[in-house]
Here is the input.
Amino acid sequence: MSVDSQAVVEKNPYVLGRARVSLVEPVSPNFVRITFVGEDVDRIGNPGHTFDQRIKVIFPPASGTLPELAAGDDWYQRWTAIPEADRGAIRTYSIRDVRVGDGGATELVVDFVLHMVPGATGPASSWAAQAREGDEVLVVAPGRGRFDGGGLEYAPGTAESVLLAGDETAAPAIARILEDAPADLRGTAFIEIPTGDDVLPFAAPAGVSVHWLARDGADHGARLRPAVLDHLGSSEPVADVSGVDDDPDEPMVWETPIYSNLGEEIAPDPAPADRYYWIAGESKVVTGLRRHLVKEVGIARSQVAFMGYWRHGVAMKA
Ligand SMILES: Cc1cc2nc3c(=O)[nH]c(=O)nc-3n(C[C@H](O)[C@H](O)[C@H](O)COP(=O)(O)OP(=O)(O)OC[C@H]3O[C@@H](n4cnc5c(N)ncnc54)[C@H](O)[C@@H]3O)c2cc1C
Here is the structure.
């Protein structure tokens, strides 16, 4: 039997601590599933209420020694004040699973996409590709029993139906959302993955149909975009939404019912809508879908979350 994970309430919304690799599973050609444990891990996560909750992971610098970093509101400023060679690299990941076992021992599971770019592989992918039992990272993750730390964007409100769409980096969040969703949820999920062997089945509500779309060498978005537009009954030619500019100097698209980094005001819904849209993945692909859904299909912005999870040719800073 697992302990009541909600009985413990952390002092801070977030825990910043060490996480030790306990298991490395190469689950498909392009995904490695890594399980973390440790005293600090025992203080994080709210099983059953995770949805698309994100965490920050700090990977060790070349020396292999993780920086000393205590929790606190200004942790990010303190981390950036550490000399670059000593602070390691920070990236954002989704909680694929958080399990509390007997006595409160917790397992935190993250699915890492291995995007190996010859000569330009990022620190997160490099670390995940070589991770071994006992390796350590720092994680900044929601505190046990705390729901006020942000980082959770999935907000369907009273909508009874959802459309979830994303690429491989969004697959862990989509899987978690559907595993945590009520059993009577209806809807459709489209997940674009590098190859057909990257399908990672999960338990979705019976009323949600899940479609895995293998890219098989095509461009990012080449399968996702037409699938979403076709599903919405759009007559817009696919080519018209593929050439959208995504300025690498601008922040990646991030627009949810309560926040838009595009600087636009999001009006409250006049009436609760019955459908909610959640779209995440490569920034340009998401920007193109956003433009189409908002401007062409006329979906209320207060019913959508559009999130750039990564950007072609650009190393993430956080
Ligand atoms: C909220 C959120 C949740 C996320 N959840 C997950 C998750 O659960 N699992 C996961 O794997 N990723 C997830 N990501 C995406 C992940 O943070 C990025 O892919 C990140 O860039 C990986 O860091 P890196 O060090 O490997 O590469 P970087 O150093 O950031 O980039 C190096 C090079 O790799 C390229 N690159 C980065 N990502 C990809 C990719 N997916 N495919 C092809 N090329 C790429 C970049 O364009 C760049 O050229 C999430 C991102 C966000 C914002």
About this structure: Residues 188 and 209 are 5 Å apart (CA to CA). The two ends are 37 Å apart (CA to CA).
